[in-house]
Amino acid sequence: YGSYVRGTQRKVWVNESDGTTALVGQVWPGETVFPDFTNPECTSWWADECKLFHDVVPYDGIWIDMNEVSNFVQGSKSGCAQNDLNYPPYTPRILDRLMYSKTICLDAVQNWGKQYDVHNLYGYSMILSTKKAIEKVFPGKRSFLISRSTFVGSGKHTGHWLGDNAATWDHLRWAIPGMLEFNLFGIPYIGADICGFSDNTTEELCRRWMQVGAFYPFSRNHN
């Protein structure tokens, strides 16, 4: 796989706690490594890969997802070490009561520091790198960037959607305050999956959602 081979040669992956071994998790394709977008070399690699893909498929914008960062195994394929970063003295009441549940080990190493300290910046660093990629792929032109994970200041560079919702009347209603809140967070280009992402919608629900969704800043049916 060319992107992986080139990334490995340029040493752009998030590493295990030793700082040299690429951390391996699992996402949709199977075994997965995670780009360290806080590494300037990774930003350069990412821009090159986006350009190579655009040469094959002439897309108009980029939608980045799973960038919390998400992981289908707990921490890594080899597990996480027993230490105060992965198992801090105080663990909030979070999913599975594990700090690395559905993400990578907290002692993983990035250019900006340990994952424990920079976890919430993973999506933001990917946004900044993708903005650089867009400038390379579309020089002098306006493009389009949407990110699932955001941080303070993200609205300067990207839009956002509210993530995976369901085809229910409650989720139609909850999307409205959700989008208003993101305007308060400085991300005005915001939307929700019209008609619901999961579950089967109904004709009436989808019709009503399309009607209100016409007023979303980012309006898109994704059922």
TrEMBL record:
One Gene Ontology term from the biological process aspect of the record: carbohydrate metabolic process
PROSITE patterns associated with the record: GLYCOSYL_HYDROL_F31_1, GLYCOSYL_HYDROL_F31_2
Classification via InterPro entries: GH, Glyco_hydro_31_AS, Glyco_hydro_31_CS, Glyco_hydro_31_TIM
Keyword Signal: yes
A GO term for molecular function: alpha-1,4-glucosidase activity
Pfam families: Glyco_hydro_31_2nd
Keyword Plastid assigned: no
Residues in Glycoside hydrolase family 31 TIM barrel domain copies: 2-223
Keywords: Glycosidase, Hydrolase, Signal
Highest taxon, organism lineage: Eukaryota
PANTHER family: ALPHA-GLUCOSIDASE (PTHR22762), P-TYPE DOMAIN-CONTAINING PROTEIN (PTHR22762:SF133)
Family under the similarity heading: Belongs to the glycosyl hydrolase 31 family.
Protein's name according to its UniProt entry: SUIS protein
Gene label: Si_1
